[in-house]
Amino acid sequence: NGLNADNVRVITKDRDDNLWIGTEGGGVCQLINQAIVSYTRSEGLSNAASEVFEDDQGKIWVTQADKIAEIQNGKVVLHKQPEKFLSVEKGIILSRYNGIWIQNTKNFILKVAKPLLNLRSGNDIDISNFFPKGLEDYYLSVYEDEHGILWLAKPDGKIYRADTNAKDKPLSGSFQTNTNFSVIPLITGDGKDGLWLGAVEKLGRLHNGKYSAVKASEGLPEANPRSFFTDSRGWLWIGLRFKGVSVTKEPFAENPSFTNYSFEQDQLSSNAVRSITEDDTGRIYFATDRGLDRFDPNKNHWTHFTTKDGLAGNMIYSVLKDKRGFIWIGTEGGLSRFDPRQEKIPKSTLPIYISRVQIAGENLTLPETGTDSIKPLDLSSASNNLTVEFVAPNFQNQDNVFYQYNLSGIDSDWSKPTKERVVTFARLAAGEYRFSVRAMDNHGITSVKPAVFEFRILPPIWQRWWFIALVILFAVLLIYLVYRNRLKRLLELERVRTRIATDLHDDIGANLTRISLMSEVAKQNTENGSDNLLSSIADIARESVASMNDIVWAISPEHDSLLDLTRRMRQHAEEVFSYSEIDLVFNSAAADLKLSVGRRRDILLIFKEAVNNALKHSECSKVEIDFRSNNSRLFLQISDNGKGFESNMQNSGNGLRSLNRRAAVLGGKIEITSRENVGTNVKFELPLSNTTRI
Hints:
rod-shaped, 45 strands
């Protein structure tokens, strides 16, 4: 009976009362589901169980390719042919596709001489009485409605109405559908004297005495039925050939609406629904190509059964509920009987574990047996791709375990149940997340405690508050520095303009005034001689030109380096002492630095004042000039060997005061030392912290 060995050493139960049997040399066996009993070759069935029917005495009959079998007291009894046509609930009679097969093809087993039809009233009638010419050429589908009226559908599109109580003319007429079914049609009632008919790629109804074709519509994706079933609620279920099953709650309505269930919606195991039935609690069963599916309309819950649950095969041909409440299932591997009342409800819920977490391609260290809780983690912005695997061990059938997950921050509710045990989240945004996963069995019972993984993805550096604060602070500082520098430039430019205006006023203006006055005096004294005045005018004009040249040179951007200043100073010194007998020594070792306009002019004026003083007042024979600089300071020294002057008279002249004033404006230091009959030494020192190296 399926054990791997006969010598049993140990028997035990798991948490769900599944029985585990340890054998000697044969390993471990598990008794999964005692609610399902199967009949296969070992019990006497020769092959697949095509159709299952129950007769008026409650006997179960099974059709096979070349035999018909009866189930008697749990045993299989084979027959060559039945004694009469056997009916099921609502008059659908024994035959493949719910029709009466009359024509003999290769000794077909249902060929009988006197076809008796068993009615719901318990009476048997000879159906050949309705057709005086015989039934040899007919394929019929028969339906007995709620009034005891028989409806007989023929493949040629004609539908006959037979009153079993009438003795003279049992056939009261026929309805022409103008449709050639070409095979035995499906036929069922709508509960209010109407009929639904179907065949391959054909679906129609007889409503208010008129036949009309039914087209595909919303909830009815195709008009291509395999099976009909009217349940205890009066709902009509239409098993479709390729697109699942559709149901209407008002099959008698003028324009009934449908709801479709399919494989694509994770409801059916297969879209081919070959047969439909209902148990005593109102749950609907569907025979599909991949197992038996059960739907509970009250709970909107689906359950799937396969060979792993004990079925004889996964391809289901027909399903039937008998008078005792058993569900009989004809499969490719034999016949199975399912008792819904013996179905085992698990005593405990499925525990759920997170078995693997991969973050940005790297596996997170977890216990080998998995965990139901992971310590919260902080992840970098680059670690925003996660893969989570989970598992819920089930001792009965792992295929009946479904999973639901939720990622707070993204999902508002649990996901649809799925058998997939892995989920991937890609490119998650920065934020806090809580991943939860739970298991669900085929009874809709979920894990009491979900497995949880909390984590936080940190924002990129440029999105963090301190970085944004630093950027704002830096921007404000930069704006302030730019503003301050611009203001400084404007003030500096204003000072340069003021200085230039002052110089023009003081030097050029004064000289021009003197020239004007001397010109007037020279004009008045022309007759008495004005050679001295004219010479003074010429000298003043030359001084004005020199002053103008200095101003133009100072403000020209082409002369903003220390080397240009050195050349200008050397040129001026050579011009001053060229017409005298004074020897000039000019030493320079200045770095290549960039100076502002004001600094160049003030340094040049300090130099010129000192040189002019040496020329006019020192009565020297030699002047030595030393001009040098390094990275931090500038030095200027002018020494002569003249007569000198008393130190207490140092600040009495305007020239010396001008030197001190200009040195103070530059931020430098000037020192003047003089000894009588020895000479004068002028030292000027300027810090270069505010200059720029080229």
